[in-house]
Amino acid sequence: MAAPHKITTLLFDCDNTLVLSEELAFEACAELMNEICQAKDVTLSFTGETLIQEFVGMNFRGMLNKLREEHKDIALSDEEVESYVKKEEDAVIAKLKAALKPCPGVDAELEKLAEHKKYHLAVVSSSALRRVKASITKVGQDKFFNGEHVFSAATSLPTPTSKPDPAIYLHAMEVLGKKAGECVAVEDSKSGTMSATRAGIKVVGYVGPYPPEKRSEMTKVLSDAGALVVMEDWAEFESCLDKIEAGSV
Description:
Blueprint: E1 9-12, H1 22-39, H2 48-55, H3 60-70, H4 78-99, H5 106-116, E2 120-125, H6 129-138, E3 150-152, H7 167-176, E4 183-187, H8 190-198, E5 202-206, H9 215-225, E6 229-231, H10 237-246
Parallel strand pairs: 1-2, 1-4, 2-3, 4-5, 5-6
Helix pairs in contact: 1-2, 1-4, 3-4, 4-6, 8-9
Protein name: Haloacid dehalogenase-like hydrolase protein
Pfam families: HAD_2
Keywords: Hydrolase
């Protein structure tokens, strides 16, 4: 058994951890990705589902950079990338404002955490800051998070990046004045889990938004990526956190 941990800070991923945004966001991404392929005369076609399978946990800039690396005939200039990133952000936010919902059960846990005031709460996401703030505001979760303590790998850093790069977690801890040993992150993706663990942060994995038939597979993926414990439902969060604090995982 590991030594007990004094946890002071909880760092939440946003997409498909706090809000059910991935499906909506990837629909918008797929439409724009297909537009790019058409403009470059490349015979690739994407759907929201195929993009989720390949790029979950990665922001749109990261997707475009990976696309450029894997398909050399997609010659996007840095200026074009920035233009498409802005278009994607606008398209995704429009879809989120129309139909976004919170992950089942998360609001009840956030209410309990806010009432007890035991932990500092922050959001650490790969997505653009405007999108993250629009998401938590749409579902009423902004009341749980100090607006200055919402962090974006795409926006908050001097050089934009994406998870699994640990830079955004390292930045969040620096701003919050926290050390990795006193933090726990909640992540639903391999890239997000790797980002937090590479920053030295303990991770609770969350597989609730995945289809039931994929949850066992994703539990292994997140565990292999470094998650100490994995939950299917937010009702399990308190017990997961207790295990980490007790050093039993």
